[in-house]
Design a protein that fits this description.
The structure holds three protein chains of three kinds. Chain A is an alpha/beta fold. Helix content of chain A is 34%, strand content 22%. Chain A has 14 helices and twelve strands. Classes of the chains: A alpha/beta, B mainly alpha, C mainly alpha.
Chain lengths: 351, 313, 311
């Protein structure tokens, strides 16, 4: 399939550093129709990830993490619609692509691995048939060639005895093996970006480690960029180079993993991280429960969306009045969307 | 696969025994005396008593049941009170008429209903979907016998395209087909409406599955997703739908047979009902239920062929 | 794609902010109401059924003539001001018979729903909830009952009991109860593992209490959908029985019998059968629209379970 134009000379793409971003979202807005007009489920999200880099996207369920990336690859479920923004993949805006161009890009240059390996494979086809389906969607290959490639891919994701396994049906494989198969499909055409949406949440703890190991190895080998959507903070600490925290469809804090962990600048992030003190923790730690519910997108407060649950800003007039945007804090790379982040760093300093 | 076939077979036999049992108790559970019912309200007491002993109704219920079951399993469903012929034989002689109507009707229904249901699901929310679903709503809402009458009125009487009678006495193969066409279309269209609606929801369910999203995310083209991947998944619920509608079609074939004055199981049962021919009614109910069970067993085998999870274990 | 995906990340409509917030509760009620009023199918269906119910109840005041009075001088009269749809072979006003016919159809629909729903719900809920051998036995029995074509079963039962409104209602109810029970059981199976049910077990509520207080109320949305669909099926079955002469006996006016009477004269007076058939279709379309609308608004997840098994 045709590769769309080579990386453009877009100045902002160049500015981002020696390894310019492979994938960059700019002010992405995705809306669903609601009872009183459209609801912004993804509300002006800007993110980027460079080759060989892992960006972790963190937040409670419902914060819009998955929706952001489904929007980026044109798989937003109807009646949802991306209403504005840009999705630059190697410099070209995917939102200007026709559906057919977009399809050609998916799987080929940007690929996604989903949460649940048990439901991600089609139960009535062998895993070989399913990998071949992906290969033949993008390359002119004979059946025999495609099958040979499928076996190689299974070997690459470390499935034992791939020559025999290729003819197995999904139900004959364990959860971890199935996730490996899905990863094999996702990397089958050497994409530049791999989006892994909670890839290990549905797996046993021991298997989780192996699958992550595999993803890290594959990233090393191929130099692709990886987006890790997760709520497992142990995982963020060990695997992410950079972190973006999402709340109510917006990015509320982002920066290098080290900065976000050590100089947390948003009360929401801090609430999430409470109990995960340092980067050195080795035990997997889930997001702890924060009191209250994430806001209903139909009834967002007029000010800061986190205000009703915030230990810092609850009931404060300033927080109820304005919705803060992302601002640099302690350095341009580290940004937060909180009016009172200075107090937060001060409190932390005292403690 | 052999184990799966074995299980299906055991299930089939068990269900058949169950059907005979249910038929027996259902008929006994109805208030009133079958003998009195058969002879009418003005029968003499002696006549009723004689018939009761001839039918074995004077025995304790469990003995009646055992006798009934033993006979039923050897193919003896009693004799028609009116003609004195074996009830089963009478029903079996009507079977080809019903079978040809049911098969032709179902063929029409599947050929129309399945593709329209799939189209509707793929085009969900568009005017194509809405039109198909509106027509299907009409299809399930108009009484089938009335559709038959209207079809006869317009296509037979006014347009003269088809004979008003649904069966030809004598005549070659093509004459029979010509007579069968209209009843089969009428039955088929109403079943097609059901199949289209249910196929649509089965297909929508499959299209909402994670593995379909994965296929989209991997850039598999839509036609491949719809017609190769999703279709094989949707086939199982679609087959189940066809199984369910088959039972429904057999029930409604009675009405179609009456409208078109066509012989068959339905009209034989109806005649038996009107003549209070209790044994024959029972035989008819059993034969039709057996037909449904056999169809479902066949579908079960097909599920095994399509879905690898079913045959392994 | 919708439902599966939304369930996952889903920012889309989420559960209420809190049970004690009256403002939120009011907004929820408003939003729910709006979902109904904005569903065209639901509104059309509800209007049709409401109008038919009024027609049936007010029949004595609305009908231009008696549905039973025969007027031999007016046999098969053409439509006129006095007889808007003409008369049948016995000189009875067709329109009046159709208006009174609504009484029978709606009564059958109402009672069959009430009976088959109560029995089917209890049977299905018990099976799904108790599990074990009771469930297996009930499921086996239901499967066997489902092998009997519904209309045929109703026909055989009504034949054995003699034709009256009660026996038509009983027969159709018996024929359709197993269908309701299957739906109910599959519904209960989906809510059985939910946390509040397990919590109730933990605090030692008796099974019956859990069943009545928690399982059945939670299964109501799909059951309401099933109710409308089975009312439609029941009306069609009653019409079929009447058409065959096995329904409520003449001279009572029923839609099915008007069609049957009209059949004899269909080439010369097609209006009789046509109008009666349209009456049935309108009622059934109304109920189906209502059912589809309720399904879309009450309970999107149950789409398939409630649809497939009701034939």
């Amino acid at each position: 399939m045709q590769r769309s134009s080579p990386p453009s000379s877009d100045p902002s793409a160049a500015k981002a550093g020696p390894r310019g971003p492979v994938l960059e979202l700019r002010d992405l807005v995705t809306r669903f129709p609601g009872d009183d007009g459209p609801l912004s489920i993804v509300d002006g999200v800007s993110l980027s990830v460079a080759s060989g880099e892992t960006l972790a996207v963190v937040g409670e369920s419902g914060s819009g993490k998955t929706m952001t990336f489904l929007s980026a690859i044109g798989l937003i479920p109807p009646p949802g619609r991306v209403t504005s923004g840009q999705v630059l993949l190697e410099g070209t805006d995917l939102l200007t692509h026709t559906p057919e161009q977009l399809r050609a890009v998916r799987g080929e240059r940007i690929s996604m691995v989903f949460q649940d390996p048990l439901t991600g494979l089609n139960p009535v086809f062998t895993i070989g048939e399913q990998i071949v389906e992906v290969l033949r969607a993008h390359r002119k290959l004979s059946r025999a060639e495609a099958r040979k490639k499928a076996i190689e891919l299974l070997e690459r994701v470390q499935i034992p005895d791939p020559g025999r396994r290729v003819d197995d049906y999904p139900h004959q494989l364990s959860g971890g093996m199935r996730q490996r198969v899905l990863i094999a499909m996702a990397i089958s055409l050497d994409p530049s970006v791999l989006i892994a949406d909670e890839p290990t949440t549905a797996l046993d703890v021991t298997v989780q480690a192996q699958v992550l190991e595999l993803l890290a190895e594959l990233r090393e080998e191929s130099g692709m960029a990886m987006v890790l959507i997760t709520h497992d903070l142990g995982l963020v600490a060990r695997h992410a180079d950079r972190v973006a925290v999402m709340y109510a469809g917006r990015v509320v804090e982002q920066g290098s993993a080290k900065a976000v962990f050590e100089q947390t600048a948003h009360p929401y992030t801090l609430s999430l991280f409470r109990g995960v003190p340092s980067l050195d923790t080795d035990t997997a730690q889930d997001l702890i429960e924060i009191e209250g519910q994430p806001p209903d997108p139909a009834f967002l407060p007029p000010g800061c969306a986190f205000e009703p649950r915030c230990f810092l800003g609850q009931g404060r007039a300033s927080c109820q009045a304005t919705r803060p945007g992302l601002q640099p804090t302690l350095g341009t790379e580290h940004q937060t969307a909180c009016l009172h982040s200075a107090e937060l760093t001060a409190t932390r300093a005292r403690a | 696969m052999a184990g799966y076939l074995g299980r299906t077979l055991v299930q089939l036999v068990a269900t058949l025994v169950g059907i005979v049992t249910v038929a027996f108790f259902l008929m006994r559970a109805i208030p009133g005396d079958p003998a009195l019912y058969m002879l009418g309200d003005f029968a003499t007491e002696e006549a009723v008593a004689a018939l009761r002993s001839r039918l074995g109704l004077d025995l304790p219920v469990y003995q009646q049941y055992l006798v009934f079951m033993e006979r039923a399993l050897t193919g003896d469903l009693g004799r028609s009170v009116v003609t004195g012929q074996p009830a089963l034989a009478e029903m079996l002689s009507a079977l080809p008429w019903s079978l040809s109507l049911a098969v032709a009707g179902l063929a029409v229904a599947v050929i129309l209903g399945v593709p329209l249901g799939i189209l509707s699901a793929i085009k969900q929310g568009t005017w194509v979907d809405m039109t198909i679903m509106l027509v299907a709503l009409m299809g399930i809402s108009f009484p089938v016998f009335w559709v038959g009458l209207v079809a006869v009125l317009f296509l037979s009487h006014h347009a003269g395209l088809f004979p008003a009678l649904g069966a030809a006495t004598g005549g070659g193969f093509w004459t029979q087909i010509h007579h069968l066409t209209l009843p089969a279309l009428v039955l088929g269209l109403s079943v097609a409406a059901y199949i289209a609606r249910l196929t649509r929801s089965a297909m929508l369910e499959v299209l909402g599955q994670d593995y379909i999203r994965v296929a989209h995310a991997m850039g598999v083209p839509e036609p491949r997703i719809f017609f190769r991947l999703a279709l094989r998944n949707a086939f199982i619920p679609i087959l189940a739908v066809i199984g369910v509608t088959f039972a429904w079609a057999l029930g409604n074939a009675i009405l179609v047979e009456v409208v078109f004055s066509r012989p068959g199981l339905g009209s034989t049962v109806l005649k038996a009902v009107l003549a209070r021919d209790y044994q024959l009614v029972q035989a008819g109910v059993l034969v039709l239920a057996t037909g449904v069970v056999l169809i479902n067993a066949t579908l079960n085998v097909l599920y095994g062929v399509i879905d690898p999870r079913m045959r392994s274990d | 794609m919708a439902s599966g995906e939304m369930a996952r990340d889903s920012a889309i409509p989420r559960q209420p902010a809190g049970p004690d917030d009256p403002e939120a509760a009011r907004r929820r009620r408003q939003a729910a109401l709006r979902r109904y009023t904005r569903h065209p199918g639901f509104m059309v269906g509800a209007t049709i059924i409401l109008l038919l119910a009024l027609l049936a109840i007010l029949a004595p005041w609305i009908a231009p003539n008696s549905p039973l009075k025969t007027e031999m001088s007016l046999v098969l009269a053409e439509p006129s001001w006095a007889y808007p749809l003409g008369t049948d072979q016995f000189g009875r006003c067709v329109l009046s018979r159709l208006i009174y016919g609504a009484q029978i159809s709606l009564q059958v629909g109402f009672w069959v729903v009430l009976i088959s729903l109560t029995c089917g719900t209890l049977i299905g809920a018990l099976a799904g909830f108790l599990g074990g051998w009771i469930e297996r036995a009930i499921v086996a029995l239901i499967d066997i009952m489902l092998a009997f074509p519904g209309f045929l079963l109703a026909l055989a039962l009504v034949a054995a009991q003699g034709s009256s409104l009660t026996s038509v209602i009983t027969a159709v109810s018996i024929a359709y109860t197993p269908r309701v029970a299957t739906v109910m059981r599959s519904v209960v199976l989906t809510i059985r593992p939910r946390p509040f049910i397990e919590a109730s077990h933990a605090i030692g509520l008796t099974k019956l209490r859990i069943l009545l207080r928690h399982v059945i109320p939670n299964a109501m949305p799909p059951v309401i959908v099933v109710a409308t669909v089975s009312a439609a099926t029941a009306i069609l079955a009653e019409a079929g029985l009447s058409f065959l002469g096995l329904g409520v006996q003449p001279p009572t006016a029923t839609w099915g019998s008007v069609i049957a009477n009209g059949q004899a004269v269909i080439t010369t007076r097609p209006l009789i059968s046509l109008s009666a058939g349209l009456s049935i279709a309108v009622a059934v379309i109304g109920l189906n629209l209502l059912g589809d609308g309720l399904r879309d608004t009450l309970d999107p997840q149950m789409r398939r379970q409630t649809g497939a098994k009701m034939l």
